[in-house]
Amino acid sequence: MTEPGAPSRHQRLTDLFQEACGLEGEARSAFLDEACA
Fold first, then answer.
1. How far apart are CA 22 and CA 4, in angstroms?
2. pTM for the complete prediction?
3. ∠ Cα 18 9 27 (to 5°)
4. N or C: fewer beta carbons within 10 Å in the chain?
């Protein structure tokens, strides 16, 4: 059984992953710190 909103949550995580992959080093770390706060 899936939660309501699960597809949008999955899409958000996919978007964050793709954006983080485009960053390097400290920029990636700072991005993830902010996105996951």
1. 30
2. 0.70
3. 35
4. N
